[in-house]
Predict the structure.
Amino acid sequence: MTTAAPAGAGPAGRPPRRRRGAVESLLSIVLVLEAMTLFFVTLVVFGRQLLPAGVAWGCGLGAIVLTLLISQTLRWRWGVALGWLVQLGLVACGFLDPVMFVVAALFVAIWTYCLVKGTQLDRLNAARLRETPGDAA
């Protein structure tokens, strides 16, 4: 005997996916790119012996995992605030290798742009949804 999926359910009876806003999508992309960058930063810190090997790998992999976890919290304001702390941490990497100040400046600029532009897009999309009658999904 099969049971019918509830109304509005997706494939295999799962509830439909939550609609993500532009801010959440754009900022999560930035954080994932930063996590990949942190892997290469870890390799540089290890290769140039700027820190002991255990510290370099432990802190590097910890920062990568933390960045990826924070990328999943961006639907809340406190998640965006944690994202700003990641940006600050990336700037702090410049004290280990000065080239990171340039990389961090680029990521902070991208983060800021995505936050501003994503907010504008979310407001525009919200206004469109208010104007269209019925279900705009």
Notes: The chain is about 70% helix and 0% strand. Residues 99-131 form the longest helix (33 residues). Helices lie at 22-47, 53-70, 77-92, 99-131. The chain has one domain: 21-123.
